[in-house]
Design goal:
This protein has 9 helices and 8 strands. The chain is globular and about 60 Å long. The protein starts with 24 loop residues before the first strand and ends in a 30-residue tail after the last helix. A hairpin with a 5-residue loop joins strand 3 and strand 4. The protein has a 4-stranded mixed beta sheet. It is an alpha/beta fold and 318 residues long. It has 2 domains: 95 residues, CRISPR-associated endonuclease Cas1, N-terminal domain (Ribosomal Protein L15, Chain: K, domain 2), CATH 3.100.10.20; 182 residues, CRISPR-associated endonuclease Cas1, C-terminal domain (Four Helix Bundle (Hemerythrin (Met), subunit A), Up-down Bundle). Helix content is 43%, strand content 11%.
């Protein structure tokens, strides 16, 4: 498609600056469609040839499920406007790959790594995460493993409480990421909701210039820090929506699949709570609790993407 890779801009005009992340809509899921740039617009082309225009510059992320395809022109335009493209499994329960929406610089990565490698600083960060998550100070003289166990108990208690409130037959958290249909409806609802939050959190972590893999409470996973940050908001945003939708499904009151209903509910919850505007300040707040001096960026450092007046390309690898 001649000219499709030009980012959709008018000849002779400079490309518009990306919308700051805090002002964007959260994310969308795409399945069984082809993403491309046609007539200067970012579109999803359906099997029958019809087009659905997607305001790519106004999204934090696009999650591609099985059956979705994307052109080079579409990837290039998403990168230019600073929108994360993520390839996921059905329901988002597996992450296969992700683009880089920004944050290609070292000073914040080094700060994050230095905190993670200092046992005392890491514990201070984990305690701060606990305080933000549960609105109370963490129990004193507890190790990270002990705090992880305490959090697990509180989360399970919250699941059981929400299940009773919404009339959901809840047993335990269980899913098989290789077989989506093997899980019961409440677990599929939770998985879909968590995938939405993880996608949004990953976009924020990368946009702010940090490494998704360097976690504090979580460790050893490609998205450990994403899980840390997502957990700060999980119980107040997506988990109640997941159980509410599961309750409606149990009563036969849904006119769509539970998975789709959960995604729509999460989208509305993100907008209502202003979640995007809260995530990056929360990242800064928890890392500052480590009480480790922040290194000054070198003079040649790239700017962090998604801030007013900057091009999305500035946050990418050259």
């Amino acid at each position: 498609m001649s000219g499709a890779g030009q980012g959709g801009g008018m000849p002779g005009l400079a490309p518009p600056s990306p919308i700051p992340l805090k002002d964007r809509a959260a994310l969308i899921f795409v399945e069984h469609a082809r993403l491309d740039v046609l007539d200067g617009a970012f579109v999803a082309v359906n099997a029958d040839g019809t087009r659905t225009q997607i305001p790519v510059g106004g999204l934090a992320g696009i999650m591609l499920e099985p059956g979705a395809r994307i052109s080079h022109a579409a990837v290039a335009l998403a990168a230019r406007v600073g929108t994360l493209i993520t390839w996921v499994g059905e329901g988002g329960v597996r992450l296969y790959s992700a683009g880089q929406p920004g944050g290609a610089r070292s000073d914040r990565l080094l700060w994050q790594a230095k905190i993670a490698l200092d046992d005392a600083a890491r514990l201070r960060v984990v305690r701060k995460m606990y305080a933000l998550r549960f609105a109370e100070d963490a129990p004193s003289r507890r190790s990270i493993d002990q705090l992880r166990g305490i959090e697990g108990v509180r989360v399970r208690e919250t699941y059981a409480l929400l299940a009773r409130q919404h009339g959901v037959d809840w047993k335990r958290r269980h899913y098989d990421h290789t077989d989506w249909e093997a899980s019961d409806v409440p677990n599929r609802c939770l998985s879909a909701a968590t995938a939405c939050l993880h996608g949004l959190s990953e976009a924020a972590v990368l946009a702010a210039g940090y490494a998704p893999a360097i976690g504090f409470l979580h460790s050893g996973k490609p998205l450990s820090f994403v899980y840390d940050i997502a957990d700060l908001f999980k119980l107040d945003t997506v988990v109640p929506e997941a159980f509410r939708i599961a309750g409606l499904a149990a009563k036969g009151k849904l006119d769509m699949s539970p998975d789709r209903a959960v995604r729509l509910a999460c989208r509305d919850s993100f907008r209502k709570t202003g979640l995007l505007a809260r995530i990056i300040p929360a990242i800064e707040e928890v890392l500052s609790a480590g009480d480790v001096p922040r290194p000054d960026p070198p003079p040649e450092a790239m700017p962090v993407a998604f801030e007013a007046g900057q091009s999305g390309d500035e946050g990418h690898r050259g």
